[in-house]
């Protein structure tokens, strides 16, 4: 067993590769119908703030009857506020001093021996409530003393399918299991091999559980887009 242990402890983190699976959703209604019950609710901690005080916002995304495959940046990051609108007391739109952006980087995965462009995805389960926070509105808007209203719109893209990428650590560990199975050494018994492989399998389970929600949406599987609008909240800057 002494000769086997060092190999069990080696993790090849620099290996590159992926073994994605393809998951096709069962037929659903069109995007408008599938998202008709999806609601946005914007909330604010209090109504009045000092000139330099942080103004935090929270956006609740309440899903309806259907599971939705949507971009991660739209529902799980500050990018959900990318189309936030601030209006002054006269209804005029206040221009931001800096835009609120969302990540949209593409990732290439293998699907049926073909390279497929994807974006990071999020599965918004039926009936689920997802909350996204903006720490400080004044980081993006210069707001003099006065009264304002704030609202958010999300142009929510909905996709048909997703891919999962096998984590590089899992690939390395799986290959280590195969190497152990092939070991031919008088000092290494079958029980030793089973014990070593079981320990590696436990590591794999931990990694897969940690990354179970990491999914990617093939760009070509876009079903359509739904425009969701929140309520307006009022605030006063003293």
Can you give a write-up of this model?
This protein is an alpha+beta fold and 238 residues long. The chain has a domain at 25-165 and 215-237: Sandwich (Immunoglobulin-like). Helices cover 20% and strands 35% of the residues. The protein is built from 5 helices and 14 strands. Strands 3, 6, 10, 13 and 14 form a 5-stranded mixed β-sheet that branches. Strands 5, 7, 8 and 12 form a 4-stranded antiparallel β-sheet that branches. The radius of gyration is 24 Å and the shape is elongated. 21% of the residues are buried.
Question: What is the structure about, briefly put?
Answer:
This protein is of the alpha+beta class. The chain has a domain at 25-165 and 215-237: Immunoglobulin-like (Sandwich), CATH 2.60.40. Helix content is 20%, strand content 35%.
Key descriptive features of the protein:
single chain; 238 residues; alpha+beta; Immunoglobulin-like; five-stranded mixed β-sheet; four-stranded antiparallel β-sheet; disordered N terminus
List the SSEs and their pairings:
Layout: H1 5-9, E1 21-24, H2 31-34, E2 39-44, E3 48-49, E4 57-62, E5 68-71, H3 72-75, E6 84-88, E7 107-111, E8 114-124, E9 129-134, E10 146-159, E11 161-164, H4 168-181, H5 190-210, E12 215-218, E13 222-229, E14 233-237
Parallel strand pairs: 3-14
Antiparallel strand pairs: 1-11, 2-4, 4-9, 5-8, 6-10, 7-8, 8-12, 10-13, 10-14
Helix pairs in contact: 4-5
């Amino acid at each position: 067993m002494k000769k086997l242990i060092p190999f069990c402890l080696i993790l090849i983190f620099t290996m590159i590769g992926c073994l994605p699976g393809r998951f096709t959703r069962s037929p659903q209604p069109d995007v408008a119908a599938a998202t008709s019950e999806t609601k946005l609710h914007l909330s604010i901690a209090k109504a009045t703030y000092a000139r330099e005080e942080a103004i935090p916002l929270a956006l609740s995304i309440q899903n309806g009857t259907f599971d939705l495959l949507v971009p991660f940046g739209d529902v799980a990051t500050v990018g959900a506020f990318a189309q936030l609108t601030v209006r002054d007391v006269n209804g005029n739109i206040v221009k931001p001093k800096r835009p609120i952006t969302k990540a949209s980087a593409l990732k290439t995965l293998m699907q049926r021996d073909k390279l497929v462009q994807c974006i990071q995805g999020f599965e918004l389960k039926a009936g689920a409530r997802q909350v996204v926070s903006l720490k400080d509105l004044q980081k993006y808007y210069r707001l003099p003393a006065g009264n304002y209203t704030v609202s958010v719109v999300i142009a929510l893209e909905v996709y048909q399918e997703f891919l999962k990428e096998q984590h590089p650590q899992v690939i390395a560990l799986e290959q280590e299991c195969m190497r152990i199975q092939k070991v031919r050494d008088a000092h290494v018994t079958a029980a030793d091999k089973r014990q070593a492989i079981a320990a590696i399998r436990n590591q794999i389970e931990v990694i897969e559980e940690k990354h179970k929600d990491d999914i990617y949406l093939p760009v070509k599987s876009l079903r359509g887009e739904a425009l969701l609008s929140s309520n307006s909240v009022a605030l006063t800057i003293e």
